[in-house]
Amino acid sequence: MVGPAMTLGNTFGAFEVGTLIAVCLFGMVTVQTEFYFREFRDDKRWLKCSVALVWLLEAGHTVGVCFELYRTTIVYAGRPLEYNSFKGIGVATLLGGIITMIVQSFFSLRTWRLLPSPYRFIGLFCIIASVVRCGFSTWLSEIALTATSLVGYLVKNQWLITMLLSMGGALDVVVALSMMYFFLTKRKNALQTTTRVVDRLVGFTVRTGFLTSMTAIGALVAFQLAPNTYIWVGFYVCLAKLYTNAFLSALNARQELRRTMGTSGLVVENSTSNFERLTRRRPSISVVVDIQTERDIELQDNPVKWDHSATTPSSSSLEKESGVPFP
């Protein structure tokens, strides 16, 4: 293995920085989880169970990372060459692989259910690939839990670590590009007043896929250039929490997106799939006749329902069609 020499800064220091960022991200996960259960109490049970499960996995992931931080900064303080076992990282690898599989499957499921054939099979392929990746991640965690030499672990499993990081970044890019294709295709036929809704969906898709894919690529590059340091580990311990934040933000952003749709006169749907139709009453009209008599005429027609789902993908139509919440 080639790369820069091991120092306290590029080993324990890099791992400590990554752990501190990961703990902050877990705080964001907790806040988003609390917001979700407070604002979306009527969501489907499977979705609420998924959110609760992901939070519990994140809590275990955080404990594993912090436990390993204690060992590196206290037990092996100033002695990085003696650091040969890393059971906390092994546990974090296992839980992180499960979290990544859940989140990637969630976003891939939307791709499978929304895209037309044959493009929809991209989503199915991504779901299968995420499950396979989780299997390899479980295998790697088992190796990490029983390893007795850090150098030997990195040398023997360099191909496996490289494959896991590459698969994670590639899946994020494929799912994001597929959803962008879908939204941009719909945007061509959207009304001018509703294109901003589609633009928000495109922007959200890019942001969520960009953060996770760039972090995975950063870990991959650091591992290839400096495999004997812990810089890549600093990236890796943050990866699962970025996935969870992307998952929760996709659920929690529905409220803001529907508010935006309301200003455009679109039909929106709440979390229980009941339609909340925005209506507009016609204003009263004041008519003055020649004999100076003023008569107020108020139109009592039925409220007008504005439904542009035929021309632009509203949140309700996307959720109904895909079976999973949007954005």
From TrEMBL:
Task: State the UniProt keywords alphabetically.
Answer: Membrane, Transmembrane, Transmembrane helix
UniProt cross-references to Pfam families, sorted A to Z: DUF6534 (PF20152)
Q: Where are the transmembrane segments?
A: 12-37, 49-70, 90-109, 121-140, 160-184, 204-223, 229-251
Q: Where is this region: Disordered?
A: 302-327
Domain DUF6534: from-to ranges: 170-255
Bias (Basic and acidic residues): 318-327
Superkingdom, natural source = Eukaryota
Q: Which InterPro entries match?
A: DUF6534 (IPR045339)
This chain's protein is named DUF6534 domain-containing protein
- Native species: Leucocoprinus leucothites
